[in-house]
Amino acid sequence: MTPIEVLHAVEKAGGSVALLGGQIRYIPPKPSEWLIPELRQQRAEMIALLQGRAALSSMPPGVRLVRWDPKQPPILLERCSVVIDVEKFISATLAQIRARLEGRDFAAGNWPLRELVERLEQVGVEVEVDMTKSGCHAQASTAQSKNQEGDK
Predict the structure, then answer these.
(1) Is residue 21 part of a domain?
(2) C-beta atoms surrounding 136 within 10 Å
(3) Is residue 44 part of a domain?
(4) What does pLDDT average to in each consecutive run of 10 residues of the chain (152 residues)?
């Protein structure tokens, strides 16, 4: 087993492995005691692995690390969404834009304004945000709204 596999196995079983003053401290639950020889055999590699983990920020209270296997860069991060109720999505996204412009980031889902505008474009709605005017100013144009205007 590799050091990371040993570490994952101990943590998955509910145990813990930590580096304290250059010494490895581990608390393996009974079912994973068979990993102790693996921990001892790979001591140097385990210390290096645990030092790398310690260099990063610690987990917030109430958060337990389940897996630690950082990938090699570059890594492409992307968001994927599926819209099944377009009208509701448009309405909700416009409300998020309004909240963002009013400075209520949480109510905007913490989405940046640019991404909110891009999300609308992906469902066929183009908006223009006038940042120079006070309050919210968003103009939406869709094929549906243009048809409705033409019917008047």
Answers:
(1) yes
(2) 15
(3) yes
(4) 82 80 79 81 86 65 64 75 89 91 90 91 86 47 40 46
